[in-house]
Structure formats: structure tokens, C-alpha cells
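Folding follows sequence. Below is one example:
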Amino acid sequence: MSSENLLPATEHALLHRIAVEQSAKRAPSLAAAVIRDGRLLWSGGRGQVDGQAPTADTQYRIGSITKTFVAVAVMRLRDEGKVELNDTFDTYVPGSALGGLTVAQLLAHASGITAESPGSWWERSPGTSWSELSDRVGPGELKHRPGRRFHYSNLGYGALGELVSRVRGASWLDVVREEILRPLEMTRTTPMPEKPHAEGWAVHPWADVLLPEPAHDAVSMAPAGQLWSTLNDLARWARLVGGDTGEVLHPDTVAEMREPIVVEDGDHWLGGYGLGLQLARNRGRRLAGHTGSMPGFLATLWTHPEQATGAVVFANTTSGVEVPAVAADLIDILATSEPRLPAEWAPLTEYDPELLAMTGTWYWGPAARSLKLMPGGWINLAPIGVGGRASRFRPEPDGTWIGLDGYYAGETLRVVRHADGSIRHLDLATFIFTRTPYDPSAEIPGGVDPSGWH
């Protein structure tokens, strides 16, 4: 067990949580880590790997967390203009029954295709080439209308791995190695295990005995769950999911990946999926990351970007250990035992006087809004009182602002000025904001009654 600057009571609570899980759920071993502000804050291990407790450098198979690496590779292609998310799959990989599905639908598990690849259970079988796999995929593999609902598909990520390979002219694995793992210095994330590593086991349901699980190369299905990794490496990956991208992706792109595209449980929205990232709501926190399972292994990586915290949990057992719940609990223990202190307030060291002149009260019709100046020249437009639309805006080089969230996300805010340069009104996606309710001197659509208020 290791930690940096945690209170002894917090360390004990974290260790106690994983100790209870490993003992009660009979895991041969369990390893976990907590991340805050970009560093591995605590790690612990229970059970045995090669006769000793697992460490932050012990490899486990991470299963479907592999999909997040494939998704980042796809989004890098999108950001470079080499792939368009609304294009169909056959734009890049022609000749398959999946051709009419969009790249975005495949990323978000909204394509409607079957969960598993046709043939034998791919997780326990030697893999085949994409050509062989594609030949087995027919129209019957489409289970739902594309875009209708969330339907998790390992086959879809096998297809995305092939897309990455076709566009880059290299295997998906080489692309991940060169473009992601190497820049992030994730040296212990590999397609096959390298010592020290845990062995994969199935635990007998009615006796304390074990059965070894196979670990084949899944070949064309490998993008769905092939990789092995460590707590140290996935702590770095948790930082990327939270926005510290190390220039592998723009932080805005990762934020886009964290936006919910589909939800698993529409009535309550406790779980869902973005562009390659799994999403969950837990105790008022919106978490992003991914779960993973392969025969002999379970894994989860969750991040809470708002508080720059995360957790990673591994177990070398086929079933039984609730690693997603453990990871969420570790985040909660840290948040409740040692809550983050808010950043100290400090006045701006510099500001644009023209921006300061924009601050204060504005009106959309009769509805009052406050406009506040933020660091970096950003502005925040929010309702005064109850209800209404609020958004933050980031300045653009042309003197406009782009909405970042809420109703106005992606919309443009422009300042309209009088001939003397003074501000006349704000134009936000055709909505006119004035200094007084329905200012008759502004360009209010439909005009303002000349008799005024009465």
C-alpha cells in the first residue's frame, strides 16, 4: 500500500473498502488506486499475485477499457480532418454489412448491431482476421434501428479498430502505441501480459477453488478488450479522461467524448455512453470512464472531472467482484473524508476595460440576466432570480464569443455597437439583449410599441 499526504483515517477507510470486497467476494487478488489533481494519491492491494500483494505496477487485463484507447484514436483522426463522425462506416472500410452505420453511432453503442461477434464466444477463442469476421456479419446482426437506443456492441469496436487501421495505414495497436501510449509514457500497457502480472482465474461458486482462464489474442476483436495495464498507467489515463490530455487530444475533444449520447436507463439516467466513454451518476457526481471484463479479470476506471479525482480497481476473477461500485466508493471516501479546498479567490491581475463595460444587467425582453467577467476574458450570462438559461462564453479571435454549455452551447454572441463605438445591444443566436427591457433603440424583432410600457 502507498499513499501521499492522506490522513491515516482516510487511508484506513480506502484499504478497508477493498479488503472487504476482496474477502467477501473471494477475489484471488484486488488492486486499487485513487487519483487527485493528476497524481496517484493512494494505492492498495489485497490477495496474492506470485506470492505477494499486488502493487501499482502489477499488470491486469483491463478488458473493455481498451475501447477508450480506440475511441481516442478515432477522435484524433476526427480532429485532423481525416474522419467525419457522421460519415458511414463504409466510407473508410467498404464491403461490410456494417457499412450504413455512422462512426458516431459505433462509438456511442447506438448503432443497433449485435453485442457479440458471430461465431464462438470471442473472449475465450483464438481471434480471426477482419476479413473472416466481416464475412460472418450479415443483416441479421442489426438488432435495433440505428440511433434508436443504447445497445452495447463489442463487434462495433472491432469495426472501429479496423477503421483506425485503414485510415492510418497501420494496425490499431501500433497507432495506440505511437500516438497515445508513448506520448503519455504508459510503458506498462501492452496487448499481452508482461511480468509482473496477475493470472486470470474463475472462482468456483460453491467452493474456494480456482480454474485458470485462457488469454488469447483476439485479433480483429482485440480493439474491444485486448489490453493489459497497471494502476500506474491507468492513473495517467484517468487524468486524460478528466481533461489533462498531455496534447494527445484537445481538452475540448475529451469533454465532447464525456457528453452523454445515449442512456442505458432512460427513466432514471444513472448510466449512459458518450463518444467512447462510459458515463454514470453516483451520489450526485457524474462520472466518466469505463468498466472492463474478460475471462479471469474485472476492471473499472472512473473519473470525476469536476473535482479532478478518479479511481481504478482491478480484480483477477471472472465474476463476483463489483469493481464499478468499489471505484465509485473510493471516490466518495476521498471526497467525504478529505474534501477538496476551494481555490483561493484573488482579483484579476489584468482585464479589458471594454469587457468590464459589458458587465451588469441585461434584458432578454422583460427577463433580467447578469453578465459577469471571468478569468481569461470569458463571460458568464445567467438569469437573475429563478429559472432561465445560463451559459459561459469563450472569446474568439474575431471579437465574438462562443457558448460553452447549456442552451447556448456552440452559439455565437456578438456585440452590436452604436456609431460612436458604445454598446447598443447583444445579439445571441438572434436573441437581442438590451440594457433596459425592450429598449426601443435596439433592433428588437417585431419592433417595440411606440407608446411604450403602460
About this structure: The chain has two domains: 2-337, 353-434. DSSP finds ten helices and 21 strands in the chain. The radius of gyration is 26 Å.
